[in-house]
Each structure stands twice: as structure tokens, then as C-alpha cells.
Amino acid sequence: MRISFVGGGTDLPSFYTRYPGRVISTAIDKFMHVVINRTPFVDKISARYDVSEVVSHPRDLKHSRIREALLDLDITKGIQIASFPMIPAKTGLGSSSTFSVAMIKGLYAFQGKRIDKYAVAEAAARLEIKLVGEPIGKQDQYAASFGGLNVFQFNPDHSVEVRPILLGYKNRLALEDHLLVFFTGITRDASSVLSEQNNNIEVKFESLKKMSDSVLDFEGRLMKGDLRGLGQMLHEGWMIKKTLASNISNKVIDDLYDVGMNTGAWGGKVLGAGGGGCVMFLVSPEKRKAVLAELVKLAQKNNLIEAKEVPIRFAQSGAEILHDSSILT
Amino acid sequence: MLSPVLRFFTIAVFLLRTMQDYIKNYATQVEQALRNLPDQEIAKAINILQACYERDGRIYVFGNGGSLAIATHWVSDINKTIFSHHLDHPSRRFQAVRLPSTESEITAWANDVGYDMIFAGPLRNYIQDVDVVIAISSSGNSLNIIKAVELANENHVPVIGLSGFDGGKLNELADAKILVETEKGEYEIVESVHGTIMHLITRYFKNYFDHMVERGKSI
């Protein structure tokens, strides 16, 4: 899965077809495992996630991403697809697109095809945006497919440039140690936030342009190891983002954010589309404990029983096929 | 007419100077190649290896002649030396394999199929999605190297290519294009710098793991 720093929202086609969108994000050590199993003696289609679905034809599946992928690839019988996420859906860590990327890569291998990272990301984006009809962007599919810390640039001609940030281990670990990711206990559907944001592109065009350009500034500060400056940029980005749609933030999120900032964080943001999920702060290691304690206290006061810290480390690896038994079956 | 003593002295100084010049000249050539190191591509290679380490993949390294020696040396460093300070630490280790891993395979492939297949042949036995290939070839055009790299390309397994001269085909096909650009035929310069680059990679991970352990992080 991934955390994004700045530029979220500029990966929507309503924006990047007019001005290059940019996002800077990193893959993290929270993975989605997808198992795809061929069942030559059973014709049924089985999808196993929070629930288990067994149907005779993929069109009857409730899980929209699995349904559309199977229909599109013309796989109509004898398959089981199961997902095992380390972090549940709707937490703002890009889990649904991570699932799509892993599944697409797996389904291609299931059909005996190997495709490269760009093709995997594009196929997953096509599945989610075109076939399922989600009003989302493409940053998460690229983040999941490539892994690592990257700047993604979404060009008006729909091409995507992937530029890895070649950060030394000291700067990378320092950044990790300064990040505090806190799950609010509130889950939300990215689509509800993004569809309002999609409609607001016209009004917010200048803000989004600023966000896209700020990605380059963020990259520069990251290379220099200016962590305090990065915190300030996260804060500014979050202030702009909040104006993009009415449901990106709410009272509880604002309170959590404020308490983090008032306890000494340098900056922060809500991860993902907004409305819930995780808040992330850039905070000095000395203040980290205090910030976390205040967040926990406030979450308890708001009865957010599932709220807790999500310890993260960056991951360099993207979606991979860990085992392919197709040659044996 | 110089006295015999003076003549001997003159010749000795002359010889010494030319030997020194020769040595200095070589050092200058190596220095120049080192100054032009493709740092971006080496950084990319380090990222590729980091990703491979995270997913517990294997690294296959190979080359011909001196390059094979560089590959073997590096395998020992990356598999053992970089963890020297933490040999009791229950950490994940790199899994680098010099290909072919036995002399029998080299001769079997060369004798039965052809010398072109001595790397691609054994590589096919091992290659998985999570792996990485490091190919070392000064010319970048050795056919047996290219065959193995093409196999990796077909499988979308990342290739780190160390080449010299103009990079040849290897530099075109590699994902991390580590080219030590020199005149054609400068094998000694290229191989010296390849050795340095492989040591640089070793050192990077050694320092990285030391840094992690010092900070109480698991590796």
C-alpha cells in the first residue's frame, strides 16, 4: 500500500488533461496478498474477501472489481480469487487499487502472460475507472505497481512518467522516523469524496495547479533532508486540499489534526481522498510520543474505538508474483 | 661522452620516470572513468537490489573471464561480508548466486548446446518474478551475456547491466544502465571501475544495515 505526500487529486483526468498532474508518494510495508487458484474440476467462480461468493458466472459477482476483471479477460469458470490485506479497506492507504493491481498482475500470469509495471498499472486503472466506473485517479495503481518512493507525472495525453526519488538510506530512514500515521477509526469510500472533487475542478483549477507544482518543491526539500520544511509543505497542501470538496474533512478530523499540530507536529495531512482514514504527521522524534498520546486521548473521547497508530516503513518493492504454480497444473 | 657512472644514473632516472609516467597515466585514466560514474544508474541499481531484498528474491550475477571473477567476488561480499557485524543477528540475508554455479554446468552447456547458452541455460532453471539479474560485460556485446539478459527481459525481471566502451547491446537492454564509458578495448580500466562499483554497492548496504542495527531496527 502507499502513503502520498502532496499532489493528491491532480491525478484525476478532469485536471491532468488540462495541466500535468503530479503526485509524490511512497509504497509502505503493508501488503495485500492475493491468491488466484485454478479449479479444473469445479466450474464455479469463487471470490473470497470479507465474505465468500460462489457463482456460476462472473456477471453474478457482487465484488465489482473481480466481476469486471473476469468479464474483461473472458475468464468464466474454474477460478478462485481470495484477498488478504494487512490493512482493511477505506483507510486511505490505497488498499482497493493495491488489490486491483495485484489481481490484474495475477490474472495475466494465470493466462500465461507477463506484463511490465506500466502495463499492470494502466490495466488496473482501466479496470477501476473505465470498467467499474470509479471516479478515482491513477496514482494508487502506479504506486502499487512500481513500489518505492516516486514522483508520478500525469500528462494531458494520458501518458504517465515515473521518476524514482533516489534518496540515500540516511534521509529515507530519517523521514520514516519523523512520520506518524494514525488511523482515525473512521472508514470512508474514496468515491464519495472524489466525485464531488471531480465536479469542482473548474472552480479549483488554480489550487490544483499549485498542488501539482508543489510536488517538485517537495522533492527538492526531500533530497536536501529539510524535514521541517516538508512538514510545512504538508500542512499547506492539506489546507488547500480541504477547500476542494466539503467532505474532505469533518469536525473529528479537524480536531485530531489540530491537536497534533498544537502538540508540536511540523505538519500533516489526511491520507487518501479524505473524509476519514488515516491522519499523518511529520513530527520530531522527541515530540512523537506526546503527539500520539494526545491523538489517542482525543480518539477515545470521540468513541473511535478502532483508532490507533499504524507503524510504517517504506517499501521499495512493488506488486510481485511470489509464486506461480501454473506451469505445474 | 658521459662517464659510465653518470650514464648509468641517467638511464636509471629515465627508466624510473617512464615507469612512473606509465603508472600515473593509468591512474589518470581510471580516475577519469571514476569521475564520470553514472551515479543515477548506480542509485537505481541499489533500489532494485533493495526491492529484491525486501521480497526475498535472488540475485544472479555473471560475466566472462575477469567479469566472472568480479561476479564471484561480489557474491561473497553481498552474501557474507556486509552482514559481518551482525552474523548472529537473525536477519534476512541477500541471496546472490554466481551463474553458472558449477563448472559442470558451464561445460555441459558449452559442449552440448553451445557457448552462447552457458548463462541463459542455467538462468532458466532458477528465474522467478522476484529475482534480479546482474550482467557484467566490458564490451556489452558478448552473445552469451545478451542471451541471458534477453531471457530476463522476457520475464520482466530487472537487469542491472555493467558495461564499458560504448555500452553495446547490454546497455540498451538493461534497466539500470551502468556504463563505464571508455575507448574500445580498455578492458583493464573498465574492469577496475566495475570492481569499484560492485564494492560501492557492497559498502552502501553494509553501512545501511549497520545504521539500522545501531538504531535498534530489524533488518
Explain what you see.
- The complex is a heterodimer of chains A (329) and B (219).
- Chain A has 329 residues and is an alpha+beta fold.
- Chain A folds into two domains: 27-163, Ribosomal Protein S5, domain 2, CATH 3.30.230; 169-309, 2-Layer Sandwich (Alpha-Beta Plaits), CATH 3.30.70.890.
- Helices cover 43% and strands 19% of the residues of chain A.
- Chain A has eleven helices and twelve strands.
- Chain A has helices at residues 13-16, 64-73, 95-110, 117-131, 139-146, 169-178, 190-199, 201-224, 227-242, 251-262, 285-301; strands at residues 2-6, 21-27, 32-38, 45-48, 52-55, 79-85, 149-154, 160-164, 179-183, 267-270, 278-282, 308-309.
- In chain A, the strands form three sheets. Chain A has a four-stranded antiparallel beta sheet with strand order 1-2-7-8. A four-stranded mixed beta sheet of chain A has the order 3-6-4-5, covered by helices on one side.
- In chain A, strand 4 and strand 5 (52-55) form a beta hairpin.
- In chain A, helix 3 (95-110) crosses helix 5, helix 4 (117-131) runs antiparallel to helix 5 (139-146) and helix 10 runs antiparallel to helix 11.
- Chain B has 219 residues and is an alpha/beta fold.
- Chain B has two domains: 1-35; 39-214, Rossmann fold (3-Layer(aba) Sandwich).
- Helix content of chain B is 57%, strand content 12%.
- Chain B contains eight helices and five strands.
- In chain B, strand 1 (59-63), helix 3 (66-79) and strand 2 form a beta-alpha-beta unit.
- In chain B, helix 1 (4-35) packs across helix 8 (187-214) and helix 3 (66-79) runs parallel beside helix 8 (187-214).
- The radius of gyration of chain B is 21 Å and the shape is globular.
- Chain B starts with a helix and ends in a 5-residue tail after the last helix.
- Classes of the chains: A alpha+beta (329), B alpha/beta (219).
